[in-house]
Specification:
The complex is a heterodimer of chains A (145) and B (137). Chain A is built from 2 helices and 9 strands; from the N terminus they run E-E-E-E-E-E-E-H-E-H-E. Chain A is mainly β. Chain B is built from 2 helices and 11 strands, in the order ββββαβββββββα. Chain B has a 3-stranded antiparallel β-sheet, with no helix packed on it. Chain B has a two-stranded antiparallel sheet with strand order 1-5. A two-stranded antiparallel sheet of chain B has the order 6-9. The chains are: A mainly beta (145), B mainly beta (137). The interface between A and B is large, with 73 and 68 residues.
């Protein structure tokens, strides 16, 4: 669901802004995000002071944060734990490994060491483990249903 | 800006607000313009027994925090969501950030700029409202 109409904010309103990153050849370790806007009654394009983000760098088999477009229209994230190299060696070359979904309880922040290390006791589990964030740690996706 | 952690209902100078930041998300604080002088905040105190199953003492913890606003739009730093980089490549291409309009005029966000970002898109506002009704103050 994509539209190129501007995101409108009323005075004192907060709104999430979804963005899609187009990768270029030069991948930087950090990025500075600035937002451009216009205010009513004026055509001038103004800038909001940018914020800097340093990307977390992971190895291929480390738990990693992936983001995706949620059906609700916001961007959500999950932590994906790929199978280890040993797990891949153990399984036959053309086997597809299953996906285990870890659904957190209330108030658990998915982007945490607690969640990322949940399967530390089974390092060579032959599966992909996915921990969706559920949009927020308290509400959003209700996976009890 | 008024943060109302663990508060559902409150009054500022007898004006009622329903829909405080009960789960302390801190995503959309109330932005108020108050004249110099004294003001009155009243809070309805409630406690959610469900979360801990009635364990422990019946205490309530809530937070009221006021912060001066610069009165213009800004990006909420803590809200920036971007994927991890896995062996030099972004794991996915989606991201998001919260824009907070602390000013008095309507604004239109018309673009985002960053290294490696060259386009943006927006969701249909109606869908946003149905998912997070409390955010649109």
């Amino acid at each position: 669901m994509r539209s190129n109409s501007p995101l409108r904010l009323a005075p004192r309103q907060s709104r999430p802004l979804a963005l899609e990153i187009a990768t270029s050849e030069k991948n930087s370790s950090d990025v500075c995000v600035e937002v451009l806007y216009t205010a009513e009654h004026s055509p001038a394009v103004l800038r909001i002071e940018g914020i800097r983000h340093v990307f977390s760098s992971r190895e291929l088999t480390q738990p990693q944060k992936i983001t995706y477009l949620h059906p609700g229209g916001v961007v959500s994230y999950a932590i994906l734990r790929p199978p280890s190299k040993k797990a891949l060696h153990k399984s036959e070359s053309d086997t597809k490994l299953p996906v285990v979904i870890g659904l957190h309880g209330a108030r658990v922040e998915t982007d945490s060491d607690l969640v990322r290390n949940t399967f530390a006791g089974a390092p060579d589990l032959q599966a992909w483990v996915l921990f969706p964030s559920g949009v927020t740690s308290w509400s959003g996706d209700d996976w009890r249903r | 800006m008024l943060y109302t952690d663990n508060i559902l209902e409150f009054w500022v100078d007898e004006e009622r607000y329903f829909g405080g930041d009960f789960y302390s998300f801190r995503r959309a604080p109330l932005i108020l313009q108050l004249d110099p002088g004294e003001h009155r905040i009243e809070v309805r105190i409630i406690r959610d027994v469900r979360a801990m199953g009635g364990v422990g003492k019946p205490t309530v913890s809530l937070t009221l925090e006021a912060e001066l606003s610069e009165g213009r739009p800004r990006i909420v730093k803590e809200s920036l969501l971007l994927p991890d980089v896995v062996e030099g490549r972004l794991s996915s291409s989606w991201g998001s950030v919260t824009v907070r309009n602390e000013g008095d005029a309507w604004i239109d966000v018309v673009g985002i700029e960053a290294m490696n970002v060259c386009k943006y898109f927006f969701t249909i506002p109606l869908l946003m409202l149905s998912v997070f009704p409390q955010k649109d103050r």
